[in-house]
Amino acid sequence: MAKTYNIAVIPGDGTGPEVVAEGLKVLDAAAQRFGFTLAKTSFDFGGDRYLRTGETLPEGAVDDLRRFDAIYLGAIGHPDVKPGILEKGILLALRFALDQYINLRPVKLYPNVDTPLKDKGPEDIDFVVVRENTEGLYCGAGGFLKKGTPDEVAVQESINTRKGVERCLRYAFEYTRQRAKRNTLTLCGKTNVLTYAFDLWARAFQEIGERDYPDIKREYAHVDATCMWMVKNPEWFDVIVTDNMFGDIITDLGAMIQGGMGIAAGGNINPEGVSMFEPIGGSAPKYTGQGVINPLAAIAAGQMMLETLGEKEAAAKVEQGIVHTLSKLKSLSAGKMGYSTSEVGDMVATHVASS
Ligand code: IPM
Ligand code: MN
């Protein structure tokens, strides 16, 4: 009997539902072709639900989601909801509760895509960022003292546990080995200033690398220098591993050098549990409902989901469909593609179904 994967779909806010629809179109084409089934269950978590009910994630939501093979997410973020509420209440809450301790973000420039980097092409921009996804500054540790007074104090602490750092590093070493490209893992940190947090990272990096991954070359770059090299010599990178905050920042830079938010995808991965895949661009509310947003990032997130589910052939075919479609688009930006959102989805799906 054909294999069935149970997928939780969270279309979310703004243009999320539009890009998710195209992603599902492509995933269904891949399922049909490669002989598996996707059983989808939709969840309405997001800004509209919050405005209606006052709830971000309802009681029991996390336990419901735990039963799925993967989660496919559009975007979270609503113009009428104060910043932080939906991000913390839905996106970060799910990453934490499902212990998705890896945020995997490939930075890959495809042919026919413009990069703002002069004289760099697809052979130069092809690396992967492994971002720790459950600790660091994102834990919410800290607080106010004398809030609202002239003596106010705000403290926000970065939590780095040996266990959390170690499992992230091990994932990154394994990933580098399996990728088998340049067998080089770069730790991105700030050992010259954050002398506690990144001392732990650097020691663990060296110990684990020496003991268990002698075949992987270890490099180190401060986060500021990493930004510089990503622009000047991106070809130096193979896999980068870093903490939550630095990973957040450098992957937006990464998205820009790979052609923008129209193409950048990420996976929130719990290798032992349920993972969640998303385009990293956000809900783009001003384009909602116009059919102009680029769905390729969501489609690429679907590709990552197939890879993680073990459907490697189907994932490779979706990537081919993306590459094929990129050769037709005028631009990756919303409203400038030369095609509508659903036409772009159709092009990828047709390629997946029949080439
Ligand atoms: C991302 C986003 C989130 C983050 C926000 C929306 C909380 O920027 O996925 O990179 O900071 O992780
Ligand atoms: Mn971000």
CATH architecture of the largest domain: 3-Layer(aba) Sandwich
Number of domains: 2
Write down the oligomeric state.
single chain
- The averaged pLDDT comes out at 97
Structural class of the helix and strand makeup? alpha/beta
User: Do you know the CATH topology of the largest domain?
Assistant: Isopropylmalate Dehydrogenase
Helix-strand blueprint:
Layout (H helix, E strand, L loop, with lengths): L2 E10 L3 H19 L1 E7 L4 H7 L7 H6 L3 E6 L9 H13 L4 E7 L17 E7 L9 E4 L7 E4 L5 H18 L4 E6 L7 H16 L4 E6 H10 L6 E4 L1 H14 L7 E5 L5 E5 L16 H14 L2 H15 L14 H14 L1
Parallel strand pairs: 1-2, 1-3, 3-12, 5-10, 8-9, 8-10
Antiparallel strand pairs: 4-5, 4-11, 6-7, 11-12
Helix pairs in contact: 1-9, 1-10, 1-11, 5-6, 7-8, 9-10, 10-11
The structure holds 3-isopropylmalic acid and manganese (II) ion.
3-isopropylmalic acid binds next to α4.
